[in-house]
Known about the structure:
By secondary structure, the protein is an alpha/beta fold. It has helices spanning about 5-10, 35-40, 55-65, 75-90, 140-145, 160-175, 195-200, 200-210; strands at about 15-20, 45-50, 70-75, 95-100, 115-120, 150-160, 180, 215-220. An 8-stranded mixed beta sheet has the order 1-4-3-2-5-6-8-7, with helices on both faces. Strand 3 (about 70-75), helix 4 and strand 4 form a beta-alpha-beta unit. Helix 1 (about 5-10) packs across helix 4. Bound molecules: S-adenosylmethionine.
Amino acid sequence: MPNKLEKFAEFDTFQNCTYLPxxxxxxxxxxxxxxHEDYFENQNPIILELGCGKGEYTVGMAQNNPNKNYIGVDIxxxxxxxGAKFASLNNMVNVAFVRTRIDFIEYCFxxxxxxxxxxxxxxxxPQKTRTRKRLTNMLFxxxxxxxxxxxxxxxxxxxxxxxxxxxxxxxxxxKFPLLYSTDDLYENNPSxxxxxxNIKTHYEQLFSARGAKIKYxxxxxx
Length: 222
Ligand SMILES: C[S@@+](CC[C@H](N)C(=O)[O-])C[C@H]1O[C@@H](n2cnc3c(N)ncnc32)[C@H](O)[C@@H]1O
């Protein structure tokens, strides 16, 4: 297994990875508004995994759904490396990764370009002073609104009761349609979707091993 520096070096060679640093956000991501035509070369739905880490959902769902396109987003290139390497070795043409801060996500995608968002085990940011950093804070949801289709779903999987309850509050306060919610996904999978329990991320495995219950909710922004 390569070390962190070797992973960074290889990351730059992957055809399925791009990087959007702060200095470039004014120009926007070169594929913004062109992901279908210039990268995937099809009109299939685009699904994002935010805070993808090693990209288990991005790669797992892409294998199960070859007629959909998946993009994992995270700031940590050495984590993305795992998913990007796997997708590259397996010639997965429906996978891409973007290394950037999710705070800049609106510079990566154009209006209506994205069909669905998955947020998988986000950093819970439990301190009250860090609420604005939570990926389901309205600051972030307003960014997603700029490119998520009107009917687009947002899926959240988390071990954190604080983060889960906080998200349900945001949904209720803003009267967003809530399709499913459960505080124990493995006891009750309300949507019945197999990918919710079949795909387990690195962090999910860590938290589950400690006995944490996995929470899930699915909602829309309109
Ligand atoms: C707890 S890890 C979960 C990783 C993966 N989804 C999993 O379940 O194994 C949270 C991930 O979110 C990323 N992350 C958190 N805040 C971010 C932000 N504002 N922009 C980009 N990535 C972020 C971190 O780098 C980290 O990889």
